[in-house]
Amino acid sequence: MYIRQIIVLLLSIICYQGHGQANTEVYLFNMKYKDGLPVLENPRNISNNEGYDNQPSFYNDHIVLYAATRDGQTDILKFNILEGSTTTWITDTPDGSEYSPLRIPKENGISAIRLDIDGLQRLYEYDMVSGASEILLGNLKVGYHVWYNEDIIVSSVLVDNRLDLVVSNLIDGTNITQQKKVGRSLQKIPNTDLISYISKENKIWELKSLNPVTGATKVITTINGTEDICWLPDGTLVAGKGKVLLKFNPKKDTEWSVLQRFTDKNINAITRLAVNSQGSRLAFVAEVSPEVIVQKQLDAYNKRDIEAFLDTYTDDVKVFNFPEELKYTGKKKMRENYAPFFESTPDLNCEIKNRISIGNKVIDEEYLTINGSNFSAVAIYEVENGKIAKVTFVR
Questions:
Q1: H or E element at residue 76
Q2: Percentages helix, strand, coil for the chain, rounded to the nearest 5?
Q3: In sequence order, which ranges of 98-199 are alpha helices (DSSP H)?
Q4: Which of 70, 123, 129 is nearest to 100 (CA)?
Q5: With 0-12 CB in 10 A as exposed, 13-18 as middle and 19+ as buried, what is 169?
Q6: Measured between alpha carbons, how far is 54 from 59 in angstroms, rounded to an integer?
Q7: What backbone phi and psi angles, to 5 degrees, belong to 190?
């Protein structure tokens, strides 16, 4: 009975991809080369933190910087690879959060995007020891950036709901827009005086190079649908797509090929890649498995922990009876339903008989105990950005 219902439901579901801050983790790999090809080894989740952990970069060959969730805001964290532990929070801004940390060339400080609680978004410089900050670009809403040298910053700047490519000179104070409609991935191209960026001017995206001094641009390759890339020292491009890392060398290859495919259920939607200067370490960001989120919800349900239970859902979660009968919307209504139910059901228990995971959907066949009675049901969970956004019950 349940299998037939599941099949019918799956055929009626349209895959959805959300946007916003997902529940993400930062992974770090050692990288070696065999027959001229990169090989990833010793995978480590270096963030292992509930919430948003993202935007890794290498301060040097042995230190990774990234943005991490702490006490309801996002701060910059330093991870010492040689010590094997996260040792230092660099920022702690009471009225704002920091993102996208990068080392400033020829200095010990870092730059990062600060998003203040009043909505102001600017690029700041931070002292590595004290965390003291000073604004770098006060009149641009910088979304992403890369240092060309100690005097020139190339940024993707938010303008009218798009990103524009802007070259900023800190010496003369000029900000020159080089192109409209670009992506977030800005990278220095090894052994050149060029920056790479993704052009979204056309239907098929293009990876282009920019000389920030002359303004000259050139198409490197098409890169449709891939938002994040990094360059290895030998000029090979690496990109993430789903659970796969792809590689492409513009000087040798005619098409992208698979570098590594991951079977770990916690590595999904690979983004935000970074490689150290020696090409011996690679970091990327991956979304937490929907299965993990659903299991966390189930554990809280069986413990009758209402706060932990609700924490796994989006604020505007929608709850349905199969196939499309909307029961209610929002966590407030969910609390009204579940809080008294948890209090009045001391023998509450849900056992999973079968579980199927497909994309962002988890389908559980459940066997429930409620006030001495037992019955079976099917629940279909849809996870978006690390939270359950929709539940459909088949009873």
A1: strand 73-80
A2: 10, 55, 35
A3: none
A4: 123
A5: middle
A6: 15
A7: -55, 140
Name the nearest CA neighbour of 361 among 299, 302, 300, 289.
289
In degrees rounded to 5, what are phi and psi of residue 308?
A: -65, -35
Residue 9, pLDDT score:
41
The pLDDT tens digits for 310-353 are 999 999 999 999 989 999 999 999 999 999 999 999 999 999 99
Q: Which two tokens stand for residue 196?
A: 């790479």
Q: Is residue 268 within 8 Å of residue 285, measured between CB atoms?
A: no
- Give the containing element (helix H, strand E) for 303: helix 290-303
* Residue among 354, 382, 380 nearest 367 (CA): 354
- Segment 364-386 mean pLDDT: 92
- In this predicted model, which residue has the larger pLDDT, 51 or 341? 341
Question: Tell me: the pLDDT tens digits for 205-237?
Answer: 999 999 999 999 999 999 878 899 999 999 999
Other C-beta atoms lying within 10 Å of the C-beta of residue 184: 17
Closest CA to 239 of 254, 224, 219: 224
Please enumerate in sequence order all residues whose Cβ is within 8 A of that of 369, keeping only pairs 6 or more positions apart, or say none.
347, 348, 349, 350, 351
Q: Grade residue 6 by pLDDT with cuts at 50, 70 and 90.
A: very low
DSSP 163-182: EEEEEEETTT--EEEEEESB
**Cβ count near 120 (within 10 Å):** 12
Strand-pair partners of 391: 319, 381
Residue 13 has pLDDT above 60, yes or no: no
Give the amino acid at 33: Y
Distance separating alpha carbons of residues 110 and 103, to the nearest angstrom: 4
Q: How far apart are CA 66 and CA 113, in angstroms?
A: 12
Identity of the residue numbered 289: S
How confident is the model at residue 268, as a pLDDT? Answer: 85
Tokens 């019955």 belong to: 375
Sheet holding 152-159, edge to edge: 142-147, 152-159, 162-169, 175-180
The residue that leads in pLDDT, 162 or 37, is: 162
Count how many Cα atoms sit within 13 Å of the Cα of residue 49 in the half-sphere of its side chain.
Answer: 21
Full-model pTM:
0.79
Q: How many CB atoms lie within 10 A of CB 30?
A: 14
DSSP 214-266: T--EEEEEE-TT---EEE-TTS-EEEEETTEEEEE-TTT-SS-EEEEE---TT
